[in-house]
UniProtKB/TrEMBL annotation:
Example GO biological process: DNA repair
Superkingdom classification of source: Eukaryota
Annotated TM spans: none
Domain YqaJ viral recombinase: 1-113
InterPro entries noted in UniProt: NF-kappa-B_Signaling_Reg, PDDEXK-like_dom_sf, Restrct_endonuc-II-like, YqaJ_viral_recombinase
Species, as recorded: Ceutorhynchus assimilis
Gene3D superfamilies assigned: 3.90.320.10
Name this protein carries in UniProt: YqaJ viral recombinase domain-containing protein
Pfam families assigned to the protein according to its UniProt record, in alphabetical order: YqaJ (PF09588)
Length: 152
């Protein structure tokens, strides 16, 4: 956790350099509470505003795994990820639905009503960007469980 917190600002600068489109920018945000479900909230690393249109945005979630501080996120030679929550999908790197990070970003997208998330997994030896779309069915199922837990 300390490594990730310490490295996060470097990771965001690298994301801006490698992936941010010209004219776009990142807004740092804190905790956001869901208006009609105030028991539900989310905190993300930023919101990417695409171009000059504040309505065109996506979430930014950054991970800096300690286990990859001295190796790349994706090992080109072995053709494997050095983190257990990513896999190779049809369109490249994909976040496993069974991982808690998937739930985390889905809840964040639900709370903010933002349809997409850039999950940036940083290592100084080689990073990975995963585009995560909002999964309405998954979110609905999780929200039902969270609501039942909260009110019982």
């Amino acid at each position: 956790m300390i490594y990730g917190t310490k490295t996060e600002s470097t990771a965001i600068r690298q994301y801006e350099t490698d992936w941010l489109e010209p004219g776009s920018y990142i807004v740092k945000v804190g905790l956001i509470i869901k208006l009609l479900q105030p028991w539900l909230a989310g905190s993300r690393d930023g919101v990417v505003i695409l171009g000059n249109n504040i309505m065109d945005k996506r979430l930014l979630e950054v991970k800096c795994p300690y286990t990859c501080q001295d190796k790349p996120i994706y090992d080109e030679e072995e053709k494997i990820f050095n983190v257990n929550y990513l896999t190779i999908g049809e369109n490249g790197a994909q976040l496993k639905r069974s991982n808690q990070i998937y739930t985390q970003v889905q809840i964040q997208m639900y709370v903010t009503n933002i349809p997409n998330c850039d999950l940036y997994i940083y290592s100084s030896k080689g990073s990975a960007l995963v585009k995560v779309p909002r999964d309405e069915m998954f979110s609905r199922d999780v929200i039902i469980k969270l609501e039942a837990f909260h009110f019982t």
